[in-house]
Amino acid sequence: MKTLFFATTNSNKINEVKQILDIPNIKIEIPKNFDVKETGKTFKENSLLKAKALFELLDRKQPVFSEDSGLCIEALNLEPGIYSKRYDQHKLGKKLGANEKNQLIIDLMKNKKNRAAYFICIVSHISINGTITNFKGVFTGTIASNIDYYKKNGFGYDPIFLTTNNKRLSELSLTEKNKISHRGIAFTKFKKFLIKFPN
Question: Where is the active site (predicted)?
Answer without folding.
Answer: 68 (proton acceptor)
